[in-house]
Amino acid sequence: MPGLLEGLRVVELASEFAAFAGKMFAGLGAEVVVVEPPGGHASRSFGPFAGDVPGPENSLWWRHYGTGKKSVTVDLDTDADALRRLVASADIVLEAEAPGRLSGLGLDFDAFHADLPALIWVSVTPFGHDLPRAGEQAVDLTVQAAGGPVWSCGYDDHTLPPVRCGGNQGYHTASIWALLGALTAVLHRDVRGLGQRVDVSMHAAANVTTELASYTWLVARETVQRQTGRHASVQPTSETVVVAADGRAVNTGVPPRTGPEFRRLLAWLEELGLLDQFRDRVFLEMGAERERIDLSVVGADPVVTEIYAAAREALVFIAGRLDAHEFFIQGQQHGIACGVVYAPEEVLDDPHFVSRGFPVRIDDGVLGRSYIAPGAPFVSNRTRYAVTRAPAVGEHDDLLRDLRPRTDRSRERP
Questions:
Q1: DSSP H helical segments within 208-247, as ranges?
Q2: CA-to-CA distance for 291 and 260, rounded, in angstroms?
């Protein structure tokens, strides 16, 4: 099965801000040529390092975000022509340079657009390329904090500070918007033959992905409050993370809302021989008789409130009598969205993740070893998603010697 984006060439000016977007392009089949300065991009100095030995080829940060890419080295200050020739061969430029740097070198979108009208140019910056705050600097933590997601991330105990979302989510959120914007521009170009500039503000991208927080404030002028392991909400909701019989944590997930779901929960209790021991059984039976319950009236309608609370308590009741993993498996079998709380290293060994092909083994000739890495973030029957090793510094410099301008970008993809 071909990759959805085979035939597209993406020139990525190496940056931690947009590295995840380049990784997604490469996984979907695009040829991603990452441009690094001589000696390698600064993110190659980000730890942790293979064997705890710092070095540009040992950075596990780089080896994760560089999968599937090709690396060429270009000194933009002294060899701008090399970049110009590379851009002329590309469909998309993905860059996250500080506003003004590329324009000062004559290497920005405006410098290319007249001669390359079909070129798509994607900029990822902290506050937009030419907006009032364009000159302000940011890192992943400040993007998440100023953009809003951190406010909703933490614990019921508000004497504790908010918690930063893990895994560079500020960078990732901006990268997803960059990918979506670029692909929308590709569709437009295929119809109209014209490229365009896509300007992604990391701050704005974070702010529009705060789930309930931003629009609850904008619409109702109410502030959501962070809660342990569940959605931030104006009004506190019942706890979802509980301790299973083996002492491990599980998330009881989303309780039943429809009649069939309540009937499945009742069947689960009966199979375990626990139905007669559950004191609020009558409310589960009332839920089973309804087509669905209206969550918008929980807290206002006393009957609906009791039915919903009983469903949550039933899941807590079951979890306290099963080992965490067994609770997870049985819950899934009964159509209940619940899960065991894994340590990171346990995720890659979970049978569900293994069966869908999420863990992949990479044979890394640069490191001289193989290792397990995260694979496709989704499964599709229309495209493959490939994960191959990250490149060495300048591994594909030969590519710069055989560049041809692209003359009809709209027809070079399958």
A1: 213-220
A2: 8
DSSP string, 85-141: HHHHT-SEEEE-PPTTHHHHTT-SHHHHHTT-TT-EEEEEESS-SSSTTTT----HH
Distance CA 309, CA 320 (A): 17
Mean pLDDT over 94-105 rounds to: 94
Q: Let me know how long the chain is.
A: 414
Task: Judge whether 239 lies within some domain.
Answer: no
Distance CA 1, CA 380 (A): 10
Average pLDDT, integer, range 41-52: 95
Tell me: the pLDDT tens digits for 189-199? 999 999 999 99
Distance from C-alpha of 15 to C-alpha of 20, rounded to nearest angstrom: 9
Report the distance separating Cα 36 and Cα 72, nearest Å.
Answer: 6
In a domain, 229, yes or no: no
Under a CB-based contact definition with an 8 Å cutoff, are residues 162 and 238 in contact?
Answer: no
- Tokens of residue 378, six digits: 């989704």
Domain of 407 in residue numbering reads as 9-211+352-411
- The number of beta carbons lying within 10 Å of the beta carbon of residue 181 is 21
Amino acid identity of residue 383, one-letter, is: T
> One-letter amino acid identity for 231?
H
Structure tokens belonging to residue 211: 């789930």
- Considering the domain architecture, whether residues 110 and 153 belong to the same structural domain is answered as yes
Q: Is the pTM of this model over 0.70?
A: yes
Q: Which two tokens stand for residue 411?
A: 């027809």
Section 63-84 average pLDDT:
96
